[in-house]
## 1
Amino acid sequence: MENFRKKIISWGAKLLLGLLIISFALWGIGDYTMGGKDGDEIVAQVGDQTISGRDLKFRVNNSVDRMRKIFGEKVSSEQLMAMGVIDQTLENLIEESLFTQYSQKLGLIISDEILGAEIRTDKQFLDSSGKFHRDKFRQLINRLGYNEKTFMELYRKELIQRQLLSTINFAEVKPKQLLNDLVQHRGERRIAHIFKINHQSMRITNRPTKQVIDDFYKKNEKRFISPEYRSLTLLTLTPPQIAGEIDILDTAISQEYEDRVLEFSTTETRSIQQIIVPKQEQAKEIIKSLNKGISFLETGKKIGEMDASQINLGEFTKSQLPIKIIAKKAFSLSLKTFSEPIKTSLGWHVIKIDKITPASVIPLSQVKNKIRKEMQLDKATDALVGLANKLEDELGSGATIQEAANTLNLQTVKLIKSDRLGLDDSGKPIKILQTRPEILETAFNTAQNQNSPLTDYDDSSFFILHVNEIFPPKLRPLKIIRKDVIKTWEKEQRQNNAAELANKLSSLNKKIKTTKFVTSLGQTKPLTREGKGLDIAIPGDLISKIFNAKTKETVWTGGEEQTYMATVEKILPINPSNNAELIANIENELQENIRRDLREQFANAIRTKLDVTINKKPIEKMFYQSQ
């Protein structure tokens, strides 16, 4: 169980990553028994079966897309790869192949009858009434890029694997002591007093000499290496770029206006006041009061015992008034006139019209340009596909992106230097790359002097780029960046001074007092190890240190601009009787981790009977050579 114990340490992130990758076992997998076709290289040999680079890349891309929806679009491929996506995805494919071959050895089968029954009861293919919907079935397999026969065989393979692993999947292993320990560990809460040292408040007593800066520069050369930059020629095709060139006839605009006239029309509205009373005699008294010239508000307050907010109903169209008889009367009265008493199930109503806003239609002359631009954009969207095809034809005939753009009267953008964050060599953001991360990612996955594929984005736009030159990382000369080096040295001195102060204060085991260097941020509410309940912004690793400290112990952690300290005030153990949901969640996660560990051990046992060989070269070529 050593492997299992390792998993428990950081099970949160690993479980999420693993489940994201495993979720593509059926819904995002190429048929790995077909490895090697169309010149695709083999990345792994598992017994008699092969796993192709195409299958691995397809699964990795799907995993990355799914994870970006969770972690955010700005997470780069490199960051996701560093999380182990490639290795875990390949291991998952190998595991599936092992289980498939072992199932075949055992003679496990799924008949056509059982296969059909399983598919007909799969929730993904059921309509709102719970019945199998063939169109939904076809739409899904088409979206995945399969024909029906291939999909059915993949589904059969998945069912066989479930059958093979059924003992593991339905195992109920619940180590009581481990569960109790985890509940106490994760359910414990703590209260801490938080302090902050602002680095800018720390003094630097001695100015650095030339020799000090020279030595600092040499010692920290890695910090002053410029990132890789790329020079690009970018061509985008978007509807607004060509919309202005599309002619729209006035007759077409007029017809569009007629078709959408309701969009440019407003319905008559009326501001209504109302007094409502339970008895007819009271309603008659209201009419007498109004006829004497007493205001509607005064009459409502005196006879109806209503305040202004109850009397002033607001502005309505006729259809917005829920009682038909009231609506009919309200829209038949003249301005500033009141009605006779009206009987409804709610009582007796007297209404008055305080304001009338007539119905209106915005004339064509005022919206003509708006309609024209909208129609141009619509037609531009349709025309863009044809333009993209023409561009590909030009490029296919040997033209450069610039030459193709000139032929088709399109504009390119030349980006002299950009790093992986979309910043130029002066550190300023390049707008188009900052707002379109897919362009930036493509730029750093395209080789020098090569075009990227023509890629669609935003449903109706395209881009293609050429990498003109790659500027590899290099050490920036000290004579050019001396001021930056001095600032970096000063920043580090302040950080070190703040760390020394925090270390000194925490080691005294005394109550920390606020000074011109130390600021109190107050006492936290009870918080968990995950930071739940925290109402003061602090670094994540300070939370870990809080939960490793004793009562009244002070811990600290450094940051870029501030150093934070925390004194543990109270430790609050979990009360199991009030945390049934947390206990159930931990129990389920523990059960899932045990099953996954057993599944992995089972796969390792099969692996001893089947040769598994991994070919690293094509993997590096696919995922790392351009990084």
## 2
Amino acid sequence: MKKHIYLNTFRSWLMWLMLGMATANAQSPEVEWQAIFGGSGNEFLKDVAVTNSGYVFLGDTWSTVNTGNKTCNHYGFEDYWIVATDNAGVKLWDVCMGGAGYDRPADIDQTSDGGFIVIGESTSGISGSKEVPGYGNSDYWLIKLADNGYTSEWQKVFGGTGSDDGRSVEQTADGGYIVAGVSTSGISGNKTEASRGYDDYWVLKLDTYGNIEWQRTIGGDMGEWLYSVHQTPDGGFILGGSSPSSASGEKTEPSKGLRDYWIVKLNATGDIEWQNVIGGNNNDQLYDAIPTTDGGYILGGHSDSGISGDKSETARDDDYWIVKVDGFGNIVWENTISGSSLEQFGNIFETPDAGFLVVGKSISGAGYDKTEPLIGGDDYWIVRLDASGNVLWDNTIGGTGVESLAYGCQPDAYTYTIAGTSWSGISGDKTLANFGGSDFWMVKLFTEPNDCQTPDGLTSVTLPDKAKVKWNSVPDAIGYKVRYRVEGDEAWMTRYVKADKHFTILRPLACTTTYEWQVMSICSPDFTWNSPYSESAFFATAACRLPGTTGAQPVTVFPNPANESITISFSDIYENIGGINIYTLTGQLALTITESPSDNDVVTISTAGLDPGLYVISIECDQVREFGTFMIAR
């Protein structure tokens, strides 16, 4: 639920690189290494996130003694268990948090100070490592940990006299926190609003120390299940869950089936800005709603609805159902992704190329969208989508036993980290034995990048104040970087070029000067996979000229004299051609041409409607007006 990664390098230009990245590396990744974490009992993974030093894993533990690689004390029936590792999956520390009852974790996020914020559900009173009493059957239990994991900086309990289950937490831009989950409580404890139905969305905005700034109860007349909250770029929040309710309470649309995706957009103070119900005729369960770099949202869950409502594809059983919406919740595209049997959604995140990775589990064999057979009883199943929701590849990972629900994150452009719960022994993809009944099983996947070739075929055309440099395109490049300098200088100037071009205009340049230039291919959006620079090429700019003149022959007209048509050829130096007008010698406009030059920088036009005589042609080239003459003779 969970975390998504954004890359911030050269944002405006980088988006063009991202569009080429999805198809440039459309092969299924391979297992690079794996790790097991567990004790003598059962451990169940609930979340994984990238940290400053590697990874952090969150789950619950039932192991009552310090065995396997679990080194912390057990407190009750079920405890939070947090494991931190380095980038290679080597354990740095682990900590257990719990009281005498049941403590079920849900979500973890690294905070700006290097520590961690953890949310879940607790039935414990003050006991074990739980320092605050509860209010009802179960409460949100929020813990702020220091960067070493062992030190609990503060703890908070949120709840009423009913059952309250914390499911999602995120640090906000102001240094505080947003927490969200499900509540059956009325006004009681520290809950200030009445229940709307049975289960409601319950969202709380907290300050840096976990004190309540505001809270909202949002629901209809039945049971809403909220799983995801994320802050949006405008300072508001997007809520993702599901609802069977009619139009009632805060819900403005009726249910379309038994249960639907229900997304709610809040402003920075918790007021509803808009909402949308998305579903088919059966059960549609939404678990993730995250902001995307295009200003919209990606929704992920599973569905067993047929073609109905908003759903355009039939279900085979429970399938992944991914829905892309715009910034106001309107559907852009949706895709049902499945094998022949049951799939269960874990999480989704946006990849650096503006595509998506879907992570979960499957009991299906090969068929439909699933290209690999089942390995055991249940396997991890990951599916890579492009920005339009098309499947690029999928990967089935498991042993011959059972792998439970998996979650994923992406630490860099070519690797994915997938983690879940495993009962398998050494078999299939699993090379490590379990310590107990079920353990956390982490798998690091690596996608081998394609060869990133150095461009060749460097050529140039020059004018006194600029040069057009060209090279041969590289198939796997998602962009290019050109650097140039006056011959003999130490400092380089640089220019980035989109993948759909293999030339650029360098300007302003000094006239009558020799320049050195090189070009490299860029094959990954985070600049970790580039070609070497090409060998140096050189060009000399033309002689200095008077202001307002080009010093070049920009336009050639042929045949000259002409009869029924003329062809206009432009100098290769120009990047933008437009505004072609033909005048008589008396200055009268005879013809306007709107056709753009072809790839060969030529335009052929009919002159059948022009009288014989001498004409002047005027063309705007790179915002400079150029002129030529031709004659029509019949």
## 3
Amino acid sequence: MSDFNFEEEEFTSQFNGGTLLRIGKQLKAHKRLTITFLIAVAIVSLMESVFTYIGRMIIDQGILGRNPTRLVELVVTYGALIVVQVVCVFIFIYCAGILGEHIRYGLRKQLFSHLQKLSLSYYDRTPVGWMMSRVMSDSERIADLVTWGLLDTVWAILNIATALFFMATINWQLTLIVALIVPVLLYIAAWFKQRILMEYRESRKTNSLVTASYNETLNGARVIQSLGRQDENLREFREKTARLYRSNYKAAWFSALFLPSVQLIAAFAVGGIALYGGWQYTAGGISLGGIQAFITYITFMIWPIQDMARVYASMQHAIASAERSFSLLDTKPEIVNRKDAVDPGTLSGDIHFDNVTFYYDENKPVLTDFNLTVKSGEMIALVGATGSGKSTIVNLLCRFYEPKRGAITIGGRDYLSFTLDAIQSRIGVVLQTPHLFSGTIRENIRYGRLNATDAAVVEAAKVAGADEFIMALDKGYDAEVGEGGILLSVGQKQLISLARAVLSEPELLVMDEATSSIDTLTEALIQRGMERLMQERTSFVIAHRLSTIKRADRILVIDAGRIIENGTHAELLRLGGHYYDLYTKQFRREMFEDAEQDFFGADGVAENATLETTPA
């Protein structure tokens, strides 16, 4: 399986401060909660240093000073501050949890909302797994960074700052020694940070490919097993996961190497303080409690820097995730409303394609100077080989794409002057492969018009010919369809899709090979529903079934993006051209097979056979 030729944006190895700033902006909507969280963290961090300072006074003034009254005062103060610290710990943990959920919810809502606005072309070139990773796992990591990552960072900065302050009040010479070590530790941290970030960027990129491969394999499980592709798929999946393993392994290696490097430097610092502090004590320059406090403060400083191995690993992972999530949010829809776009109130009138040129790839035009006029209420059938441009014509009509050159007018007005909603809400689309959403049959039909009553849903199903099979189910309209409609047959899904289109009451109708992959009995039901739906509506039908094509007002034979034949079924047969070749080669024999005619009904097999639109 390929990766859809998907080229993901490459991110540089440089630390991106802009990304961190955008992550921080996620807190803007929760100022009060964020401030409470930061104050609680600051108090808890400050208490740690105060406790050490009080411990120094307990040793020097209470124990060594043999002053029981002072000792009791200090112990009571220590206990009271512990109560304050406990309350603040509860507050910051609670705030971090709530804040994380807010950020997670807000990000996912932003991403999902933005995905709804993106043009169809974005979904054509972007793997589903990549988008799922952005919305789910990446938003999780960003939320963790904003809460627990922020906690670790603030805690580390305050620990170092308060430790240096209290050390300076005890002995400035020893403090100077410690201050000289800090830049060395920060340099080492920065060096490791760059390498960890590079590997996690590669990890997030590869993880998207792995997720996409998962998604594709699960959706195509039946095809994979029927073709015996299990071993080949496993080999390709191993290659992707091996690449993911290597990038994660390197990130873990750098993270593991960082911690002992910091510990080694910290050991030299503690040894130097113990040696110089001992000399100061014998000279009367520092008390025994002061030395104990000093070593504790060094631990306070070294611990956050040591913990940076973990903090940096999670931070770089989150930044790599954020870069990709923000790249999605920064993607601009290719199809947008013009500033002066209006809702015309109706799409009635003739449709005209005027010298329309369109391509997906600039070097491979699909339509070139294409011209077509469709009268209001006319039914047009499009016939042609795969890749001839049939689906492109209806995609342009629905404005899923826009012409590269030329214009499409509806009722004499350029349809680019209409809002997207004005066009797409008035066009009913029934696809070859119908898509149903998890839920009940009633909910799936009502998707065509969310405010429709139950009676309207039932009436739409009756018009589409779906009511009979629905009522035969145990739960009727409340029966679950399963994920993607897996609990129903293709024909049943198509009938529900047709009922959904009926309920939406479209002004224009697009039927994209809606009966090409179902049995002939189900086709008869769908055909009757289509006929009711297409009455007095302008309709475009991409058809393989002769029964559908014969009823069209006009049949257009499309080849290489051009109309090579145009007329009714009878006119095109008399013409004796491309359409005639398709008809005679594929239907002559079937039309005289009485047994099949009796089986399929009075209309005969010619009404129900499949028109394979491949070049003669």
## 4
Amino acid sequence: MLKKFWLLILLLIIEGSSLMAVELMGAKLLAPFYGSSLYVWTAVLMITVLGLTLGYYFGGYLSENNPDEKILFLIMSLSALLVFALPFTSKLVISLTSHMGLITGICIASLILIVPPVFCFGIAGPMVVRLMSQKLETLGNVAGTVYFTSTLGGIAATFLFGFCLIPVSGLKFCALVTGIALTLPPVIYLITRILPAGKAEPLSVLEQQLPPVKLRGAAKPAISTINTRQVKNTIYLFAVLEGATVMAVELMSARMLAPYFGSSLYVWGAVIGITLLSLALGYYFGGKLADRYPRIDTICWVLLTASIFLMFMHYFSQTLTLAFASTGLLTGVVLVSLLLVLPPLLFLGMVPTLLIKYVTTKIDNAGASTGRVFTISSASGIIVLPVMGFVIIPKFGLTGPSIIIGMVVGAFPFIKLISEKKYIALLFLVFILVSFSQLNLAATSQDVKVKYFSEGLLGQVLVADVFKNGKGEKTNDRILFVNRMGQTVVDKTSYSSKWNYITFATSMASKLPENSSALLLGLGGGSIANMFQQNLKFQVDAVELDERIVMVARNYFSLSPDVNVIVDDARHYIEKTQKTYDLIFFDVFKGDVFPPHVLSLECFLKAKELLNENGMIIVNFNGFL
């Protein structure tokens, strides 16, 4: 067993920091080819959780059968080598997956890059819990402290790497720093083994600092290491519920911020950082609570409280973003994330440590119980992430799913508590009614009539007929908004565009003969596609990532049925298509933000290869051609 407890703390901090560094670096390593869409972040989060799940399971197995500190430090050394290699293997991985389908390619590339080091990180938690645990009575506190410490390192790394090191110093430097940090605990451990042994220190300083806990009904503090309570496997459904909900909240909260703050690394970094902070506090306070009230009722009350906050996420996301929109990007993102994410995830974070204490029957099984609980929790997150990121959010948005998830989380605890005649839980029904009363319905006025509103892949999409502009002048416009930024403005009667760049681009393209082939990267309302197809008689292919935009263009902006629309990422389509064109038009703005993976040298060079003789490339750079 370890004699230097401070070394365990150091290892946990570095392991937690490295985990988040690898997650952020993984997303940025994929970005030059796959971009930074919801699909990319969903895959990165899903694969990260997969790696952790496998690590938790294997760590639990090792902690029960061979809880040896030498193995732990050897695994950390291996993770350092894997992190060092990340920037040098990413191009090879992307080249191997570039001709796969968009979602398939993203997932497989994430799998190859992220799982190996994250698997190593996942092993650490269960093994450290076992190495530190001596008494069953303080197991909840030990488990909570272990995961609080690890997550605390992750919080620091998320903000350090997301806001500073990755944007300023680049990915190779970040991989180098992370790899060096991971080598420190093994090196220190080797040094302590080589130096002459001094006076042996107690196995766990933490255990010395934890006073015995007086359990209700006990005449004196218990010192036993065996719990005779029978544990049913159905208790692990709480871990399933917690893990799935945490991942859903992380995705939904990032998308709730997108209409106001965008989808940059800063936004995702803030959401991930606050998620970790919330879970860290939950682990810590859950451990304290577990040692004092190790009962099923405690878990039920915790989940019921979390469910209430979940049902109001859609309401708080709007009020908070409007309240802090003028505070600056970084300040606003952090404050809104903190107030939106921390309340539900703080209570959800209590569940694993409460469960670990409840299901552990003897101290020798502490590591195995920890690994089992976190494996089940993480495995449920693996299932929920692709369902939420690839299906539910793109198809059904955020408001309805957030309310339903809150209801599902609270349903069983509500039934359990009511069955025990704890009727104060009936307030849960009141909160459901109030939550539905706050549903976000796009407002219509005398001057603005909303024709369509939804939430999904790119964020908020809204179509409105506007009869009076900001100057008070009468208009007859139809406008497509994506995340509150205008994408298309046409006359509602003739569907002719009100933007000059459409006319200029058509004039530039008119040098090409009829029946020329044109590729439009970005559809919007379809104004440029209609001009090319109807006025210039071109054969038009248009690539659009969000299926809702295609539907809106056809139903509300009279997109010609002769325009062939391909639902795909623009860069991904350019890389995999074998078709050539006389004209390639880049029009890929989301609001006023351009996707850097599309407007890159590599993408332009690939587009040039797709041009026929005397073909041309036109780029709309925010109104400038």
